Amino acid sequence: AQSVTQLGSHVSVSEGALVLLRCNYSSSVPPYLFWYVQYPNQGLQLLLKYTSAATLVKGINGFEAEFKKSETSFHLTKPSAHMSDAAEYFCAVSEGSGGYQKVTFGTGTKLQVIP
Amino acid sequence: DGGITQSPKYLFRKEGQNVTLSCEQNLNHDAMYWYRQDPGQGLRLIYYSQIVNDFQKGDIAEGYSVSREKKESFPLTVTSAQKNPTAFYLCASSSGQGARQPQHFGDGTRLSIL
User: Fold this and answer.
1) What is the rounded CA–CA span in Å between residue A56 and residue B13?
2) Tens of pLDDT along B31-71?
3) Taking CB atoms and an 8 Å cutoff, what residues of chain B touch A94?
4) Residue A95, Cα to own-chain centre: how many angstroms?
5) Of A4, B27, B32, B67, whose CB is crowded by the most CB atoms within 10 A?
6) A104 DSSP β-pair partners
7) Residue B6 has pLDDT above 80, yes or no
8) Do A100 and B110 touch (CB under 8 A)?
9) Which contacts (CB < 8 Å, 24+ apart) does range A73-76 have?
10) A99 and B31 in contact by Cβ < 8 A?
């Protein structure tokens, strides 16, 4: 069974500081991994995805994530936080074949950006 | 622009009442999903459908029902059997071409009890 662990339900950073949101996964097969962002009272938007090509994945809004198989991690980073980055971030792992897709989401990390 | 439309944005349910949440997509996606989101618990799968006229229970289907009569539509009914329905409900869709495809989400419906 697949699972996702996000360390830290709340993370605070100063504006302009490095953002690091942690995600570890377990999967019985090579995983497909995603990061989503959610703003208050909205749905989830895709930030980036890992689908077994390059291990360093670049996404929207300056975010990137590195897939490390040996550490079963897929941490999300951004060099310099902006006030608009304040939101909740979800890591997800996807398994399945054909038309079936089972996605397991982490419990989320709320990012606070301090001016 | 293609996307997923959920309505209403806010919904209130009285005791013993069934309510239906609407989800419509114009992305031509085969697969559709309903998730429930509670604070600190991430997203939990209620039902999913890979194709018209077929759907499967997810992890927390009790007290919920769905239909998939059209490719574009996947309504969710919260029945009176669901004793704790207060939550944020998210509808999603994907192309149905396997695990590497991301899911696309609507903006959610927040359901509360009167």
Assistant:
1) 46
2) 999 999 998 888 999 999 999 999 999 999 999 999 999 99
3) 99-100
4) 16
5) B32
6) A93
7) yes
8) no
9) A73/A22, A73/A23, A73/A24, A73/A25, A74/A23, A74/A24, A74/A25, A74/A33, A74/A35, A74/A50, A75/A20, A75/A21, A75/A22, A75/A23, A76/A19, A76/A20, A76/A21, A76/A23, A76/A35, A76/A47, A76/A48
10) yes
What tokens does A104 get?
């397991």
Handedness of CA A93, A97, A101, A102 (dihedral sign): negative
- In the chain, the amino acid numbered B38 is D
Residue A45 CA to chain centroid, in angstroms? 11
Encode pLDDT of A27-62 as tens digits: 877 789 999 999 998 999 999 999 877 889 999 999
